[in-house]
Amino acid sequence: MVESKEAVKNEVVEKEVVEEEFVDNSILLFNKYSNNVNIRDPALKSYINLKPIIVPRNFGRQETKRFWKSEDMHVVERLICKMMVSGHKGKKHNFSSGRNSGKFNSNFKNCMSAFEIIESKTKKNPLQVLVIAIENSAPMEEVTNIEYGGIRHPKAVDTAPQRRVDLSLRWITQGAYMKCTKSKTSAGQALASEIMNSAKNDNMSFAITKKTEAERQAAASR
User: Among 22, 45, 79, 119, which residue is least crowded by beta carbons within 10 Å?
Assistant: First the structure.
């Protein structure tokens, strides 16, 4: 029985390896960029979707499925959706109009423009640069409030991998909107600048400063 169980385990592992190695390199994102990208952070490997696709849009087909955005939604589509509604900053939506309008086609063009700028400046695959930016700006821990007998006190907690990706994308898009709102900088240029600064772990990036602040608060709340 022991030998049979080990044989079954080996077959499962071999199948998983074969599935991971098979990547259709003929399918390029935007018909330009390879989806074959290296993810260094093992915790985020299952939550950054890089399936071969040309146009990253699935129209929310799996929206009723739990955790579907990590399993069936390309990471670039998640970035575009965050650009449509970049999320709360503090207790309210800081950006609710202008470029942050919820129009997919407009933000799709801004994302393509940002990728072209990244490729021309770094001479690298912009999808790889985006993945590195997400890894660098994803917080490892943050602070939550625990209440005992009507008294609240902060407590440091580990951040779930899916939330790490969500926070990273939110901060990247919010940093881009801060640079292009009420300025002559286009949304594509601002997004490209934010992604490149995050990939370089530069403190000029809004996402990197937010990550550093969150981890510093968590360290003080231990």
Answer: 22
